[in-house]
Amino acid sequence: MLKRIKGVRRVLFSAFMAISFLLLTPVLSLGDQKTDEGKKPERLIEMAVEYPVVVVAPKEEVSMDIIFHNRGRSNEDVEVWIDSQPKNWKAKIKTYRYGIRGVHVPSDQTKTITFEATPEKEMKLGEYKFEIKGRTVDGNFNFHKTILVKVEEKEKGTVEAKGVKLTTSYPVLQGPSDAKFEFSMEVESKLDKEAVFDLSAQCPEGWIVNFKPRWEEKYFSSIRLKANQSETVAVEVKPMPLAKSGEYPITIRVSSGDARAEVKLKIIITGTYALEAGTPTGLLSLEARQGKPANISFYIKNTGTAPNRDIKFVSFKPENWKVEFNPEKIPAIEPGDLKQVEAIITPYEEALVGDYSVGVSIEGEKVKKNLEFRVTVRPSTAWGWIGIGIIIVVVGGLAGLFRWLGRR
Amino acid sequence: MHGLKAIFKKELSDHFSSYRFMILFALITMVSLIIAYMVGMTMREELASVAKPKYVFLMLFTSRGGLFSLVQFIAFFGPLIGLILGFDLINRERNEGTLSRLLSQPVYRDSVINGKFLAGVVTISIMMLSIVLLITGLGLRMAGVIPGLDEIWRMGIYLVISIIYISFWLGVAILFSILFRGIATSALAALAVWIFFSFFVPLGATIIADAFVPDPNPNNPEAILTHAKIQKAISLVSPMQLYSDATGTIIDPTRKTTRTVILMGPLEKLSQARFAGPLTLGMSLFVVMPYILLLIAITAICFAISYTIFMRQEIRSL
Question: Rounded to whole angstroms, what are the CA distances from B96 to A187, A278, B21?
């Protein structure tokens, strides 16, 4: 029994020891690091190439960084050169502006320079070796790195964004075919020098694509960008007016030499808004009497490809006339549908006899159509007869007087 | 008043059977037809700028469809009707010797002149009424102009004033036919008076006003007003002016005064333009009442003079 208790206690003790050791370890190691930093070597510098082995297509250029790490406590000046290079390649070491032979690496910093190799002609498939050598000015440190460029046949047909980037926030727009669409597109140059980029578009036949600055009304077809600069370009698309509803892809390409990119845009045509109006007989004239309503019915046809909603009627009429419509408005007409409306035209009670023009404007949500009616006002029959009656009475009365008084 | 009815009826039938009257009547019917047609053609254009046309019916008579309106025509040539009807009424009978024969009948002397004057007035009335009714009938048929009650009243008053006006000239003609033995003399004298009052007086009024206020400065309203007042005062001597002023306001309800020159400030002008409503019939009558009374008065005076002279004249001597 006692033995068992003793064994348990030993296990507990060893577990405690293990835990306390684990807890202490980070503290101990921290102390170690501090002492390590203090013991930084007087001089320590390394050279590395970014990608020791690259795979490119024939005629494609190679560009990468050469990195220097200075881990020592003193600044270093390093000479760097290309020791050997294959035939027909043009290789150089440069910064963003100059070709260089040496670089200054301050203490505890990393410095990057660029290695660039351009094939002078289309290279044969195979491996090409570039030897980069470097050394500190006093010759204490010598570096030797190799870059292996494998030229391989590229898969055809895929166009990769390279050197330039095209992005758009709204690649799909929707609207009627008589609308104007505007995409906002960002062209970002990844080239290290200023370049002119050509813009082109592939669109369905009859469509018009224009490029213009964001806030200005002028069109351009190319754009000059500085290295690593980006510019927002508005792409204005005018669909063919008769385009049926559906989806239409548009490809925008931007290119400058080898650098090219493309972006796929899409326009969804929802349909056009068009109205046709007329009378069933084609007759646009009617007769009315003063103060008496006259009816004429006309039809409205939706000749567009989208439904027309909220069709109202507005009349342009002579002063003091009344024009009413039955129904007063039409909530919606489906494409190809026909609706009949009755116009009730009431001339002014004291309107003079003659022809008048009454215009009716049929105003849909997006379109407007005008009809002009010619209203011939006839005298109201009763008054016309009274007029004739007066004339007859006068003439008759005078004739009677002559007969009565003229006899001697 | 014995024999008045007989003389009246005989005179009336004389008028209606004479070629002179027939020609005159044909002329006037023609003129009224032309006026109705012209007005019917041009009224639409005149009304195009009016928001809510009122008194369209009256425009049939006042609208100058191209040449002249009926109102203008009557003012100028209405006197001729009266003159033609009356210039030989008495002296022709006297020259033919029928007057003494007529007066030997059991007929009062005043019945002769009363009957002749009355017959002339009735003829004038029939003529004017026919013209107005013809134009109304044509307007109703051709232009669809429907008269309102107010307009019919105004037309009635216009008719009455016109009849009085023409009757005045009839009275003048009768006066001359009593005064002068020769028919041509009386006709010429009546014509001279007509020309004097219708053409000379309005012109003379301007000349005299110019003499008093030479070249009124447009910046001096007092001078302009004096000029206008003198001109008006003198031209009012002419019965034609009286008649034009009286009928103008009756037949055109938008006219608010018979004056031609009104002095008003800019604000007054603005309010006039804004509240340019037509006058009511009563107000129009009120404005022109002095003119109507004056017309009636001169007609009555003219006839009274003829009457007195005729009653005292020696008849049998010739």
Answer: 121, 80, 20
Within 8 A of A403 by CB-CB distance, chain B residues are none
| Cβ within 8 Å, pair B137-A398 | no
CB spacing of B134 vs A394 below 8 angstroms: yes
Residues A175 and A233 in one domain: yes
Complex prediction ipTM: 0.73
Q: Does the predicted model carry a pTM greater than 0.80?
A: no
The neighbour count for residue A102, using CB atoms within 10 Å, is: 14
Q: Is residue A9 part of a domain?
A: no
Query: CB-based burial of residue B99 (10 Å sphere; 0-12 exposed, 13-18 middle, 19+ buried)?
Result: buried
Q: B146–A350: do the CB atoms touch at under 8 Å?
A: yes
| Same domain for A310 and A225 | no
Contact A398 B130 (CB under 8 A): yes
CA distance A313 to chain B (A): 23
Give the total number of structural domains in chain A. 3
Q: Which residues of B touch A378 (CB under 8 A)?
A: 144
Domain that holds residue B58: 4-312
Does residue B317 lie within any of the structural domains? Answer: no
Residue of B9, B141, B159 to mutate when probing chain A, most A C-beta within 10 A: B141
- What CATH number has the domain bearing residue A335? 2.60.40.10
Q: Is residue A18 part of a domain?
A: no
Domain count, chain B: 1
Q: Is A403 on the interface with B (CB under 8 A)?
A: no
Q: What region does A171 belong to: left with phi over 0, alpha with psi -120 to 50, or beta?
A: alpha
B14 within some domain: yes
| One pLDDT digit (tens) per residue for chain B, 318 residues | 667 888 888 888 888 888 888 888 888 788 878 887 888 777 767 766 665 667 777 878 887 766 778 888 888 888 998 998 888 888 888 888 888 888 888 888 888 889 999 999 998 998 889 888 888 888 887 777 778 888 888 889 999 999 999 999 999 999 999 998 889 999 999 999 999 998 899 888 888 888 888 876 777 778 888 888 888 888 888 888 889 888 888 887 777 676 666 667 777 777 767 766 677 888 888 888 888 899 999 999 999 999 999 888 876 654
A89-94, strands of its sheet edge to edge? A45-49, A62-70, A110-119, A89-94
